[in-house]
From TrEMBL:
Region (Disordered): 86-107
Transmembrane segments annotated in the record for this chain: none
Protein family: Belongs to the small heat shock protein (HSP20) family.
Residues in coiled coil: none
Protein known as: Hsp20/alpha crystallin family protein
Domain of life of the native organism: Archaea
Source organism (scientific name): Natrinema zhouii
Pfam assignment, any one: HSP20
Entries under Gene3D superfamilies matching the protein: 2.60.40.790
Length: 154
């Protein structure tokens, strides 16, 4: 009976190999985040699709935001990164309550996206609008400065 294999003898080795592979995948994912076209800094999947277009003198960011009003959205430009977030809460209609619903799938939703722009933009000239569930952000590129700056040497 001693010659018979024991089914759980290799489980520790299997778990160690699995753990090493997960750590390797996590390290390569972190490295991949830095090189992931260096545009989209969002974590994980998102319910809001995003496009970034270079239209010559400006960048145009287009985001699907169905069901969100402009008051539900927040935009922030920090350096060359545009942060877009939205939160939508279920609003009970007057006279209605949860007992009236037969099926209710629409709930509070939120999203957060960040996009790194390839070039600096003019923060004072940025424009944003929401139309039919599409957020459009126009980010004019900053004109390159022709003026040189003198640097003092100590």
């Amino acid at each position: 009976m001693a010659d018979r294999p024991r089914p759980f003898d290799g489980i520790d080795e299997l778990l160690d190999r699995l753990n090493r592979r997960i750590e390797t995948a996590a390290r390569s994912w972190e490295t991949g985040m830095d090189n992931r076209s260096q545009l989209d800094l969002s974590m994980g999947g998102s319910a809001s699709s995003l496009d970034l277009a270079d239209e010559g003198d400006e960048f145009v960011v287009t985001v699907d935001v169905p069901g969100y009003e402009s008051d539900d959205l927040e935009l922030r430009l920090s350096g060359e990164t545009v942060a877009i977030s939205g939160e939508r809460e279920h609003r009970a209609e007057s006279g209605g309550d949860d007992e009236n619903y037969i099926r209710r799938e629409r709930k509070t939703k939120s999203f957060s996206r960040q996009v790194r722009l390839p070039e600096p933009v003019d923060a004072d000239a940025v424009q944003a609008s929401v139309n039919n569930g599409i957020l459009t952000i126009r980010l004019p590129k900053r004109e390159p400065s022709e003026e040189g700056h003198s640097i003092n040497i100590e």
